[in-house]
Structure formats: C-alpha cells, structure tokens
Amino acid sequence: MLTLTFEGGVPVAVNGQRLPLKELIPLLNELGGKNGVGKLDLWEDGIMDLKSREIYEAPAATIILKLHRDLEGLCLTKDEIAFKGLVDQRWAALVYHGEWFHPLRADLDAFIAQTQGPVSGEYTVSLYKGNVDILQRRSATGLFAPEIRSITSASFNQQLCGPAAQIRGLPYEVLAKRNAAMPNG
User: Fold this and answer.
1) Strand-pair partners of 136
2) Is the CB of residue 59 less than 8 Å from the CB of residue 37?
3) What are the residue ranges of helices labelled H in the chain?
4) d(CA 140, CA 25)
C-alpha cells in the first residue's frame, strides 16, 4: 500500500514524504515493479507507419497516470475532461513523432497547464499482482458533492432529471423534425 499526493496535477509526495519528481519516480518504479505493476505489451505504429511490438516496464508511469486520470475526473468538469482527452492525444502524437519544437505543442502545453490548477488530492492505493487498486481518494478541490449528489442524499431531487433531460433534448427534437421534412430525409 502507498499514498500518493498531487498538487496542481503533479505528484509531490509518497506516503507523506515530499520528494522531487526525479526521486519520486524511481521510488514508484521500485514499489510498483515489485508488485508487477506497469508491464506493457503493445503494438505501435512508429513515424514510418510500420508496426512494431513493444514491451515496456513503466511502473511509476502506470501508477501516476491512473491516479492522475482519476483525480482529473474528480476535479475537472465534464467538458474539460472531454476536450483535454483530444488535447492529450494530439500532444502525444506531436512528441512521439519528433515534433517537440512545433509551436502547437507549446499551445497545447498552455491549455494543459491551465487545467491542472485544481487537480490536487491524495490517493491511497494497493499495488498487488499488477493491479493498482484505489482504496481511498481525498481532494479539497474535487467537484463531487456527496451532500448534493449521492444515493443517500435528500438535498437533490432526482425526479428533476427527467424534465431536465427532456428540455436538453428539445433542440435535437426540432432538428429531427426538420430532417424528416427534407427530401430524402
């Protein structure tokens, strides 16, 4: 078991001990590696579009990325998460294909940095037989409000969801009627 703390999207502490990233990553590599975390066997399409089978061991990256993705899910809005997925994919393609100095990469960096302000929290996880299981998550900047949105909450009237969904769908109902009235519609 270990606890990993993030501040502004960056891991900053393991088990309460603040460490610079250059020390935190080797420590997570050791802890994760001992528990079979981070073994990757995958196909890649390199810069020449030729397939290659790649086998990596990346325990620290596996742990950090899984927890960071979960923390973003807690701290960012639905729209930020969806758009950031596109940005992350484009950023990775630029870097993978040797375009580090492309001006678009710097633009994407700015967007990514802007999203990371509220991405702070602490995760307790179990590392076992290649799995990273989240046991506990805490964040003062998370958007989950259990007092409003949980099964046991009485402060949110779930019956309002039906009418809200109907109202949200009205523009698409109008579009469907328009499309049905068009020739070949």
Assistant:
1) 124
2) yes
3) 21-33, 59-75, 78-96, 103-115, 161-181
4) 24
pTM score, whole prediction: 0.85
| In contact, 145 and 23? CB cutoff 8 Å | no
Spatial CA neighbour of 66 closest among 106, 36, 37:
37
- Which one, of 31, 29, 17, lies nearest residue 126 by Cα? 31
Q: What is the pLDDT of residues 126-176, one digit of tens each?
A: 999 999 999 999 999 999 988 887 667 677 777 888 888 999 999 999 999
**CA-based radius of gyration for the chain:** 21
CB burial readout 31-65, b (16+ within 10 A) else e: bbbebebbeeeeeeeeeeeeeeeeeeebbbbbbbe
C-alpha to C-alpha distances, 168 to 30, 159, 161, 175, nearest whole angstrom: 49, 15, 10, 13
Spatial contact of 112 and 90, defined as CB atoms under 8 Å apart: no
CA distance 140 to 138: 7
Query: From CA 43, how far away is CA 52, in angstroms rounded?
Result: 6
Residue 53's φ and ψ, nearest 5 degrees, are -90, 125
- Token digits for 167? 């109202």
